[in-house]
Amino acid sequence: MATLSIKDVRKSYGSVQVLHGVDIELEDGGFLVLLGPSGCGKSTLLNMIAGLDDTSGGDILIGGRSVVDLAPKDRNIAMVFQSYALYPTMSVARNIGFGLEMRGVDADQRKRAVDDAARLLQISHLLDRRPANLSGGQRQRAAMGRAIVRDPELFLFDEPLSNLDEASCGNAHRDQAPARASRHEHRLCDARSDRGNDVGHQGGGDEGRPYPATGRSSHHL
């Protein structure tokens, strides 16, 4: 597990500036929720942390190491996409373990990791199914399982919990420490985040202001 530091990160597409200098410090094992309206840059920020999009300025550090010049495969992160990105021709078990297979992890170790993740997410009975035979919530759990088995330094979640019930959300948060989530639902934000820091609307230049003293955390873009 690792800390995450985002220092004055900016993003522009041509003359359009999307992110105007984002600063976030997240402790090892912390859980942060990004809040904001559609199109404000939440997914863009996650993609830059993952290395799927370049920054226009600033720095991103994972575990104290700058990663802005590293390829996604070298950042040791796992991302759950909003679209789930499951392979339609593979079973749930194969989807969850496919990343480990590509890394050369032996079959017995892969099976143990898949079984542990499936048990955590309550989808052990679905491991032989294909994604087309799953509900939206079940597909989300399969995508989360694929991230969990990698045992990364950092989890990035792009609205992965919208179709999950409270018990499943709680299990995932309690047992998998570092996570970054981009979402719109404030109820789940308050229930799942750990640290109080609402930084205001970055694109509009508002000054940072304290989040209500609940012991929870969000970052408002």
Kindly summarize this structure in a few lines.
The protein has helices at residues 42-50, 92-102, 107-121, 136-148, 166-175, 186-192, and strands spanning 4-13, 16-26, 31-35, 57-62, 65-66, 77-80, 154-158, 179-182, 219-220. It is an alpha/beta fold. α5 links the parallel β7 (154-158) and β8.
Blueprint of the fold:
Elements: E1 4-13, E2 16-26, E3 31-35, H1 42-50, E4 57-62, E5 65-66, E6 77-80, H2 92-102, H3 107-121, H4 136-148, E7 154-158, H5 166-175, E8 179-182, H6 186-192, E9 219-220
Parallel strand pairs: 3-8, 3-9, 6-7, 7-8
Antiparallel strand pairs: 1-2, 1-4, 4-5
Helix pairs in contact: 2-3, 2-4, 3-4
Written account of the structure:
- The chain is 29% helix and 22% strand.
- The chain is an alpha/beta fold.
- It has a five-stranded parallel β-sheet with strand order 6-7-8-3-9, sandwiched between helices. Strands 2-1-4-5 form a four-stranded antiparallel β-sheet, covered by helices on one side.
- Helix 2 (92-102) runs parallel beside helix 4.
- It is globular and about 50 Å long.
- It starts with a strand and ends with a strand.
Question: What order do the SSEs take from the amino end to the carboxyl end, as H and E?
Answer: EEEHEEEHHHEHEHE
Tell me the β content.
Answer: 15-25%
Oligomeric nature of the chains: single chain
Number-wise, the strands total 9
Whole-angstrom Rg: 17 Å
Report strand order across the widest sheet.
6-7-8-3-9
> Distance N terminus to C terminus?
25 Å
Structure characteristics:
globular, 5-stranded parallel β-sheet, 4-stranded antiparallel β-sheet, 29% helix, alpha/beta, 22% strand, 221 residues, 6 helices, 9 strands
